[in-house]
Write a structure and sequence with these properties.
Layout lengths: L5 H10 L4 E5 L3 H14 L3 E6 L3 E4 L12 H10 L4 E5 L9 H14 L4 E7 L12 E5 L5 H17 L4 E2 L3 H10 L5 H15 L1 E2 L2 H14 L5 E4 L12 H15 L1 H6 L7 E6 L5 H12 L3 E4 L11 H16 L2 E5 L3 H4 L10 H15 L4 E7 L7 H4 L6 E5 L4 H14 L9 H7 L5 H17 L6 H10 L3 H4 L1 H11 L4 E2 L2
Parallel strand pairs: 1-5, 1-6, 2-4, 4-5, 7-8, 10-13, 10-14, 11-12, 12-13, 14-15
Antiparallel strand pairs: 2-3, 9-11
Length: 497
């Protein structure tokens, strides 16, 4: 995906005589800095309006008299002949007023005949119908590595001048710190960095973890997404060789995005993992983020739904906006069928269908590098529109583990709990768990450990085999469901094993 240059986009629009521009952003200060620079480049005056101060010229201290209200500032712009860029901060909230809309339309028409433009900011911006033919909408992208580096150097310069901070980061650690700032606004990043450095008087490797913790708090603030720490790796996922190979081929795009773009490649859309419950789909979603070294966000479909009309769709859009802001990111949607099971039915008054439509549009038009990792246990509940080619890069089927995979699963879970796999008869354990899922095997290990601990004994093969004999695996309790899954997957999916 080629980088967005908002300065260039805005310059083209102003030179093309767009009199009214909507700039979607939450970062008013950053927007003001950008437009002030643009006005200088175009040899135009720059004015800034806010509801609290009125209209002020950038190089003057006092506001222009009687320009505090939206209607009054528009009257002033209508009478002014000065070529200038006028930034109206937060003006989007006043666009529901019919008088303001009418005045803004008249002023925009005048600016189409002269140099300069009116720039309205807000998040989001919804222009009423009379204004839409005359307006251009631009979204201010999140700050890039260059902006974060400049911010960090400025903070360090200010604090070092007062002997308040020392730098204990190697060049690669510094790059990692700047990478971890992605997803924050410049103001958020400035507050976090300043606080971290003032607290202990240094910028060190430990601050990378503190930045991740601060981002987690910001992402989870609205209660729509969970921010997962990077813990599991693909080595913690037994087998799934086909899936692992697919993922590792695409890892290079994250390491060299510019070269990938020149090669004609875009950031991957995502994949859908369908299969038997308990066979590692969710674990794999966590492992991908760790393997790629990017954040993992989890969307719980139940958090989207709200009893008030229109709020559920807004929740979904906010969740997607957060994920785009933190990009590049893995967005994990576990059991995606729960979000859209009622789509196309009358069960929820069409709500699921509307959210499905919003989701499909977002999958097609997303603006950030968001890799969607969706898992599903019951494909019969998935709407056909979601399974159409192009929605995801690939659909993988995860079946019951074979003998070699079951052996690897035993080794992983024994080693994770401080046991030496070589001390056990893994051949017998693998033979005894022929129809077990990975989750079944993990519970066998845990239950056997509890038994051994309560009896004051060391864990042994005999204890694991006894627990295996007591376990009723999913394949025996739900054989029809697994057979149906396998039948559906044949010819429709790629095997993950």
């Amino acid at each position: 995906m080629s980088p967005v240059d908002p300065l260039k986009d805005l310059e083209v629009l102003i030179r093309s005589r767009y009199g009214l521009i909507g700039l979607e952003t939450e970062e008013e200060d950053r927007a003001a800095t950008l437009l002030r620079h643009l006005a200088d480049r175009l040899s135009l005056a720059f004015f800034l309006w806010s509801r609290s101060k009125g209209l002020m010229r950038a190089d003057r201290e006092n506001a222009i008299y009687n320009t505090a209200t939206p209607a009054a500032v528009l009257d002033h712009l209508a009478a002014s002949e000065l070529p200038a860029v006028y930034l109206l901060e937060g003006f989007a909230s006043f666009l529901t007023d019919e008088l303001v809309t009418a005045k803004l339309k008249d002023v925009a028409r005048r600016f189409e005949q002269r140099d300069g433009a009116i720039v309205v900011t807000g998040q989001p911006i919804v222009f009423p119908e009379p204004l839409r033919p005359r307006v251009a909408l631009v979204r201010l992208p999140p700050p890039g590595p260059g902006e974060f580096r400049s911010l960090l150097l400025r903070i360090l310069r200010d604090l070092k001048a007062r002997n308040l901070v020392s730098v204990e980061l190697k060049p690669d650690e510094l790059r990692g710190l700047i990478q971890n700032l992605r997803g924050l606004t410049l103001m958020e990043a400035e507050k976090i960095l300043t606080k971290l450095m003032v607290e202990d008087g240094k910028l060190s490797e430990a601050d990378l973890r503190n930045i991740v913790a601060a981002k987690k708090e910001i992402v989870e603030r609205e209660g729509l997404l969970e921010y997962y720490p990077l813990e599991e790796s693909l080595e913690d996922v037994a087998d799934l060789a086909g899936l692992k190979a697919w993922l590792r081929k695409r890892r290079a795009i994250l390491a060299e995005p510019e070269r990938a773009a020149e090669f004609g490649l875009e950031f991957p859309k995502g994949l859908l993992l369908v299969g038997v419950p308990g066979c590692g789909k969710s674990l794999c979603a966590k492992a991908v983020a760790s393997e790629w070294g990017i954040p993992l966000l989890k969307l719980d479909p139940s958090s989207l739904y709200n009893k008030y009309v229109g709020e559920s769709e807004k929740n979904f859009k906010r969740a997607m906006a957060i994920s785009e802001r933190v990009a590049p990111v893995v967005l994990w949607i576990d059991e995606i069928e729960k979000a859209f099971a009622a789509a196309g039915t009358a069960e929820d008054g069409g709500l699921s269908l509307r959210i499905l439509g919003t989701f499909l549009s977002w999958l097609q038009d997303r603006r950030g590098d968001v890799f969607v990792m969706a898992t599903a246990n019951d494909v019969s509940r998935l709407p056909p529109e979601l399974l159409r080619k192009g929605r995801f890069d690939e659909i993988f089927f995860v079946d019951l583990p074979d003998a070699e995979t079951r052996r690897a699963i035993f080794e992983i879970h024994l080693r994770k709990r401080g046991q030496e796999p070589g001390s056990f008869d893994l051949f017998s354990l693998v033979a005894a768990t022929e129809t077990f899922t990975g989750a079944d095997i993990e519970q066998v290990v845990i239950s056997a450990l509890y038994t051994a601990f309560s009896e004051g004994k060391a864990l042994a093969t005999a204890g694991l085999l006894e627990e295996t004999a007591r376990t009723k695996p999913l394949s025996e309790t739900m054989p029809e469901r697994i057979s149906a899954l396998r039948a559906w997957a044949e010819g429709r999916t790629v095997r993950a094993q």
